[in-house]
Amino acid sequence: xxxxxxxxxxxxxxxxxxxxxxxxxxxxxxxxxxxxxxxxxxxxxxxxxxxxxxxxxxxxxxxxxxxxxxxxxxxxxxxxxxxxxxxxxxxxxxxxxxxxxxxxxxxxxxxxxxxxxxxxxxxxxxxxxxxxxxxxxxxxxxxxxxxxxxxxxxxxxxxxxxxxxxxxxxxxxxxxxxxxxxxxxxxxxxxxxxxxxxxxxxxxxxxxxxxxxxxxxxxxxxxxxxxxxxxxxxxxxxxxxxxxxxxxxxxxxxxxxxxxxxxxxxxxxxxxxxxxxxxxxxxxxxxxxxxxxxxxxxxxxxxxxxxxxxxxxxxxxxxxxxxxxxxxxx
Length: 330
Prior knowledge:
- It is a single chain.
- By secondary structure, the protein is of the alpha/beta class.
- Strand 8 and strand 9 form a beta hairpin.
- It has one domain (about 15-330): TIM Barrel.
- The protein has eleven helices and twelve strands.
């Protein structure tokens, strides 16, 4: 009998796990955390690295072949490097990628190289130091941009994720595209999402349509690039530029029909959609002594109930207050 795979009731196979290793972060971005701060999970509530490895093995046995490490900020958790090294040895796992806020040390960059991790996403919402400070509540722009340059020099495939919002950073759109003129990186512009840990979110004024219209007004000869079927971004290049840019309709959710992602939070909550409630908590099953077979069964059960799209998932949430993105893992 063949091994079961993660196939939802709408025929979509899930092969991509986003694994959050911590809810803590050394930045305080407005779209992720409320200004007054938040209560982080107690250490004993977090999945241990051993538990994460056990769950990653189960997921890969069910057909997951790519894992993205998220947070919070992954590198604020002690022991992350040895964990990544062990994770790279999980059977069936073809690719590990990382999302970071860019506050990386040279030692951490070298460790990623040694492990064989070559793709990294950096959250960067402005190229202006003052706007960067207003968004992150941290005066560390030079550190982040320096890390990006080190990563590029070391041969990493770098993507910059920029959340676009009115009165925050729309004046950075063209400078970001211009960054791709000389740097071989990808900038991805995201619609703002309601995951700031409060109920104060309003529908974003800058949808993917407004973002594209603004950029195309400056660059009328944009070249549309071919993307993978499961890509969340629509990608473009300015002819002759070294890099490219993409637009992610993260609030409009036009890509749900081909989504191949599943999310495991740092405290064990499994989500089949970013906008939906937890489908189950795998940490609790683990700590009750569940076998690998039982974990597989629980994961398959959760996936079988996956909603058609992010709007249906959000409707099933039953609350106006969305959790912080640092809890969800992005």
